Amino acid sequence: MIYFIVFVISIFFANIAENTLKRKETVLCVIFSLIPIMLLSLLAGIRDVTIGIDTSYYPVTAWEITDCNSLSKEWLSLSFYLEPLYILLAYLTHFIYNDFNFFLWITHFIIIVCFYIAFIRMRHLAPMWFMMFLFCFLYYNISINISRQSLAVAFGILGYSFLERKNLKMFLICIAIGFLFHKSCLFALLLIPIMYMSRKINKYVIISIVIAFFAYSILIVRFSSIGGFEKVSLYQAGGAMNSTFSISEFIVRVVFLLIIYFTLNKHNRDFRKNILTLFVCELILNLFQMKSEFMGRIGYYLFVLYMVYMPYVLKNSIREKRLILSCFIICLSIFDWWYVYIHSEAGQTFPYTSKILNNLLL
Question: Could you tell me the pTM of the whole model?
Fold first, then answer.
């Protein structure tokens, strides 16, 4: 199974890269880091257009637009469907090398690099191999399906790696870049009140999200009336985008949240409260899929932080508990990945097909 093989190799070399960085062997770290970055981005880049439901829509649409010879006002007016930076990325890749798979590869190269740099910057919180493991088995197939939004999510977690060190300016720059790829990146701004304001604010954030859930239809109408956000009207409850509910997604999130609740050190109450608030909000945002299938995706900007804080919690737990819980999380993540993407074929990323790979092997 090509996914599993690439995942294992990528995790292995990410671990080696971190070890070389500990020894301050920067050149070796870069070399070993390029292996998982290139493997994961190439696997996404050489895929057929049928791999990933959204691949045949947004990436193909952006690529078709590049038949124009220059950037024009008409291109920018298409922001109703596609954000300007995504169109610009398609144009630049078309200009450099006129091949659709090259566009897919560049897109995922940016995604993987952003995640990887974020993990490197936050390696003081958790081991690189564990963060890469969770990225591969919890989010990689999602990123293939929704590559445009995943660009925004990637800049969101990169921004958080700066916010975690109190660098608000760089966080906002990353969110601005992500916003120009996908407007939903605005939801990453929730990280500011959740993680760095008083515990009273946390309560208001949770209450506000719950209210938004029940007042969903009203908010969608109001929000879609704002210039540049007209497309949001498609996500009305009972509208063009069907509602859904993923039992497996819900179970994994609840299990992760319970592990953090019962395992996270209780001495630092403020930090513990912030982390719990973060993932309670993520759980509620995921339930927005019950209103509209695609609205459940807005929680991904918080969900990807499980990749950092789940290993962090285990790293700081007692040794016996750490081993048991680590094995459990690894088994649960692999099983969830198999059940959702291999068995149920969610997102249509399996079975993996690539004409390019077939031609190389034959």
Answer: 0.92
